[in-house]
Structure formats: structure tokens, C-alpha cells
């Protein structure tokens, strides 16, 4: 799942990962991400930090508040090059960070790696098309 308020980023990530064989769903906000998790999404969540309203850190808090952290691996997408004070206490729920602009191969490699992590955690197969 790609969660980003920027449509260009959502389209780019979806295209790159779809071409690599992954089934990708997109959410344009933290609230939509929570809705998709409540509907049973399991897999890698590529989560933008800077979004209006519910930012990435607020989204992680909502994931925890709703006990939705099982079966997912959260990878933060960020244009920031310095730590954010809002991350205190939440960094243990983030498995990695990818800095924008990102390298396509790095995105594919990290997504593949963390899908394996989720597969081992849940016993489910990797979500590819």
C-alpha cells in the first residue's frame, strides 16, 4: 500500500511496484490507510510522513490505537533529512525509511525484503499479481 497525499508519488510508486509484480493499492490520506487496514490489508505500508491533516506519525498512532499493526511492515517515505520530534515512541513500529526522491531499484528491493518479513510474520504468501 502506498499512502501519500501527492498523486504523482502514488502513481509513480504504483507503476514501479506493479511493473515488478506487486499488487499495489493506494491511499491518499492516513484516514484512508486506516480504512484499508480495517478491511484486512496485510503487507508493506509505504507511508508518507508529511501529509495534511493526519500525517504519517499520526497515522501510526491511529494504527496502534486500532490494534492494526499485525501483518504489516511500515516503511516511511520522507523528503526530510532530519529526525522528526513526533517520531518519539513510534520509531520501533517503522522498519525502514526511504528518502524522496527515491531510487526505483531501492524501492523494489526494500518492498520485496519487507514483504518477506510480513510473510514470515503472518504465514501468508507474498502479495504479488
Characterization of this structure:
This protein is an alpha/beta fold and 129 residues long. It has helices spanning 7-19, 30-38, 56-65, 104-122; strands spanning 2-3, 26-27, 43-48, 72-78, 94-99. The two termini are 14 Å apart. 29% of the residues are buried.
Question: Can I get a quick summary?
Answer:
This protein is of the alpha/beta class and 129 residues long.
**Strand order within the widest beta sheet:** 2-1-3-4-5
The biggest beta sheet reads: 5 strands, parallel
Q: Provide the residue-averaged pLDDT.
A: 89
Kindly state the number of beta strands.
5
Secondary-structure content class: alpha/beta
Number of helical regions: 4
Q: Can you give the helix content as a percent range?
A: 25-40%
What distinguishing features does this structure have?
129 residues; alpha/beta; five-stranded parallel beta sheet; 5 strands; disordered C terminus
Topology:
Layout: E1 2-3, H1 7-19, E2 26-27, H2 30-38, E3 43-48, H3 56-65, E4 72-78, E5 94-99, H4 104-122
Amino acid at each position: 500500500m502506498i499512502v501519500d497525499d501527492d498523486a504523482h508519488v502514488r502513481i509513480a510508486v504504483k507503476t514501479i511496484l506493479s511493473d515488478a509484480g506487486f499488487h499495489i493499492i493506494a491511499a491518499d490520506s492516513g484516514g484512508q490507510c486506516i480504512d484499508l487496514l480495517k478491511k484486512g490489508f496485510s503487507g508493506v505500508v509505504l507511508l508518507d510522513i508529511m501529509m495534511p491533516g493526519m500525517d504519517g506519525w499520526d497515522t501510526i498512532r491511529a494504527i496502534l490505537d486500532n490494534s492494526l499493526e499485525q501483518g504489516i511492515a511500515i516503511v516511511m517515505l520522507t523528503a526530510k533529512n532530519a529526525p522528526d520530534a513526533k517520531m518519539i515512541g513510534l520509531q520501533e513500529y517503522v522498519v525502514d525509511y526511504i528518502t524522496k526522491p527515491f531510487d526505483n531499484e531501492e524501492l523494489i528491493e526494500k518492498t520485496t525484503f519487507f514483504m518477506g518479513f510480513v510473510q514470515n510474520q503472518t504465514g501468508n504468501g507474498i502479495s504479488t499479481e
